[in-house]
Amino acid sequence: MLLGKMLCVFVLLGFSLTSGKLAGGASSSPSCKFPAIYNFGDSNSDTGAHSAVFVQIPAPYGETFFKKPSKRLSDGRVIIDIIAEKLGVPYLSAYLDSLGTNFRQGANFATAGSSILPGFFSPFDLGVQISQFSQFKSRTTELYNNVSSSGEASHDCVIPKPDDFLKALYVFDIGQNDLTLGFQNMTPPQVVATFPNILNRFTQAVQVRYTYTHLVFHKNPLWDFMEKEKSLFCRNSCPKNLFVLSILQQLYGEGARSFWIHNTGPLGCIPLMALPVELRNVTLDPIGCVGFMNDVAQEFNQQLKEAVTQLRTQLPQAKLTYVDVYAAKFALISDAKNQGFAPSLEYCCGTFSPVFVMCGTSVQVNGTTFNGTACSDPSNRIIWDGIHYTEAANLWVASRILNGSFSDPPVPISGACP
């Protein structure tokens, strides 16, 4: 009984948070009826992991929509929040956040600073996030079944129904940090040369070791799938204690079928990427972007798109939707004035010159205090803190990508299921 009381309570707050409206796009009644969303990514979609593990994100972050710090690196909602609204799902709780969480309709594994490859800014690279998901699925399934067998009501649990993992939407928005760190110590050709390794990590080379005993006697659902589809997972022979899975193949083996994959945005238009380069006498393009950085980002995106195309042949029962976030964001940045925004270099919170001050912090120089305060109207700025987008920009981009205009295949998110 205690287990049921702890795990099965009504959490009305989580459901009330979906009251925000998304301008434009498709109907609010998605045809796929995704019961849950599982998100993997970095600071662009972190909804609480960084605050839970490292340090609380301070005011004025969150001021526009939540009216207080919201564990997000924006003044309001990020794109994964808008996706949740569109699909009628509560905002996602961070997997790493232990307080006030509701995982009934999904979880967010994204963590600020994360990358596809390990060993970068964050210890929670994509491989770790996928491992966290696997553990989450296994543990919540066991707990849910225990609660159900005890005779207690299961409809009000704050953990997911086991059947919902198959019908959920799996969202990816990661890769930006792999490129930005490369720009710090490599030439553009050297950065491009790392792409096969990055994408190999994403689609081909995650090694997950399961012993025969673990798979069979613990009734792991991966076993039956792997036995039927050995050619997808094994290199050369195929020993029973080693299966080589890609990240998406691992999720596919866990039952995931609907994938919504964002490419990386125009990195050369991010102020804290462009402004330091300008100081080194590198000429910015007419809209204030570093051309070679955007060229590298586009090359990465092309290779990512090709990798997704190849995965479609390997995962025939899945629906993999490649989303050109780069094109949507660049369309906004290049037409900022006509869309009611200031140029992207004019970010809202914090300063770059004459003193660099991060948003929400203060710096003392020669006895003078400089504060990283916010502009008076974030709704006309594209970039919030020099790196991350404002809620207004996120809403603009989301209204374009969620209706299928920038997707391959060209389907709205409400139709991104097999």
UniProtKB/TrEMBL annotation:
Per the record's keyword annotation, is Endoplasmic reticulum included, yes or no? no
Annotated coiled-coil positions are none
From which source organism is this entry?
Answer: Punica granatum (Pomegranate)
> What is this protein's name?
GDSL esterase/lipase At3g27950-like
Gene behind this protein: LOC116213476
Q: Family per UniProt?
A: Belongs to the 'GDSL' lipolytic enzyme family.
Residue stretches spanning the membrane? none
Q: Which PANTHER family match?
A: GDSL-LIKE LIPASE_ACYLHYDROLASE, ZINC FINGER FYVE DOMAIN CONTAINING PROTEIN
Any signal peptide, and if so, which residues? Answer: 1-20
- Keywords annotated in UniProt: Glycoprotein, Hydrolase, Signal
